[in-house]
């Protein structure tokens, strides 16, 4: 596993990403991010708080789909409460994440774990779109009689696991040698 | 590898076999830290949902007591995991953490957040039957929600600041 990660990073080093990353370090935004000691930690705080908002919203919505929380409201109402927080949370994650990449482009872009994380993130977003169709569209059409299907329940759980994997990869970006 | 003779309790903790084991391992600290992150976002996220209800900014159609029982379980699960993993991280660098002002501030604010929660639970919450389903809650409940968000935001900041200031303080 470790060898594979090293090999991927070695390969990344031979692509345009290396030159691109070096180019980013010269941009005004990158210089701004690194010249104040607190800019990177503050971007990370925004990143963590956005993850918290999105992840807890997903958790509550998934619990509702499984009939384990929020039972005072229909699934479609619970989805209307939490789906926007997942998407706005994601926006905060992406903006703060882009700032963190801009601050340390080499450590991030020439890093196998970073690209694994990006891969899982894209898959997660796509699955979230499908999940949203079920808990919002289908739930609304089904009315009070709507009961989430087994696959909708499984999708919610899968999304929770994917978010945990994204967090795991996110922390390991800082520890794999590049 | 040789370690110096401990001169205080924090160094004794740090140079314990557990402390050395975590510090010397290539994967232990990052792995425990990853679990810490997963746990703390669960704590902060569920606390935020409850706080926004108390302030009256979200989920105003859900009774406060329902919101509390829906979120609190997960807040506690997350908190217990964050506390265990946090303790393990602390053990591996105890003497460095104990002189770090951000770590000490973080511990103080966690106590303050806990006190805020206790005051809400044992005083403000006594009259919950009168306002459980109201959109706008009594001042005490609103205040508890606002204070909680502020405390936890600064706690997250301090947590991140610790990682950036290790070794700066002696």
Please supply descriptive tags for the structure shown above.
heterodimer; A: 178 residues; mainly alpha; 8 helices; B: 170 residues; 0% strand; transmembrane (chain A); DUF6644 (chain A); DUF6644 domain-containing protein (chain A); transmembrane helix (chain A); membrane (chain A)
Description of the structure:
The complex is a heterodimer of chains A (178) and B (170). With 178 residues, chain A is mainly alpha-helical. Chain A has one domain. Helix content of chain A is 81%, strand content 0%. Chain A has eight helices and no strands. Chain A has helices at 2-13, 16-25, 28-35, 39-65, 75-103, 105-109, 112-142, 150-172. Chain A is elongated and about 55 Å long. By secondary structure, chain B is mainly alpha-helical. Chain B has one domain. Chain B is built from eight helices and no strands. In chain B, helix 3 packs antiparallel against helix 4 (64-92), helix 3 packs antiparallel against helix 8 and helix 6 (101-122) runs antiparallel to helix 8 (139-165). Chain B starts with 8 loop residues before the first helix and ends in a 5-residue tail after the last helix. At the A-B interface, helix 4 and helix 8 of A face helix 3, helix 4 and helix 8 of B.
């Amino acid at each position: 596993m470790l060898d594979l990660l090293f090999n991927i990073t070695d390969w990344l080093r031979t692509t345009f990403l290396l030159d691109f990353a070096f180019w980013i370090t010269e941009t005004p935004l990158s210089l701004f991010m690194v010249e104040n000691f607190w800019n990177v930690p503050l971007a990370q705080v925004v990143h963590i708080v956005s993850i918290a908002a999105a992840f807890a919203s997903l958790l509550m919505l998934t619990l509702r789909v499984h009939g384990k929380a929020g039972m005072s409201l229909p699934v479609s109402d619970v989805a209307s409460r939490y789906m926007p927080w997942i998407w706005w949370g994601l926006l905060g994650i992406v903006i703060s994440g882009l700032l963190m990449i801009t601050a340390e482009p080499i450590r991030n872009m020439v890093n196998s774990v970073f690209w694994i994380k990006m891969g899982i993130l894209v898959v997660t977003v796509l699955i979230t779109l499908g999940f949203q169709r079920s808990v919002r569209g289908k739930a609304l059409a089904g009315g009070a009689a709507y009961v989430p299907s087994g696959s909708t329940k499984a999708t919610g759980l899968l999304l929770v696991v994917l978010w945990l994997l994204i967090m795991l990869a996110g922390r390991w970006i800082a520890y794999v040698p590049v | 590898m040789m370690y110096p003779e401990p001169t205080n309790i924090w160094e004794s903790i740090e140079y314990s076999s557990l402390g050395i084991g975590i510090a010397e391992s290539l994967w232990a600290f990052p792995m425990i830290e990853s679990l810490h992150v997963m746990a703390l976002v669960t704590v902060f996220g569920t606390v935020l949902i409850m706080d926004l209800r108390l302030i009256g900014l979200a989920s105003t159609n859900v009774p406060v007591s329902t919101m509390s029982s829906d979120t609190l379980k997960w807040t506690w699960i997350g908190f217990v995991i964050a506390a265990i993993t946090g303790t393990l991280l602390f053990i591996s660098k105890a003497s460095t953490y104990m002189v770090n002002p951000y770590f000490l501030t973080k511990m103080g604010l966690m106590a303050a957040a806990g006190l805020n929660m206790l005051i809400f639970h044992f005083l403000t919450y006594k009259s919950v039957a009168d306002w459980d389903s109201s959109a706008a809650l009594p001042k005490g409940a609103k205040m508890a929600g606002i204070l909680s968000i502020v405390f936890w935001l600064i706690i997250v900041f301090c947590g991140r600041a610790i990682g950036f200031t290790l070794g700066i303080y002696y």
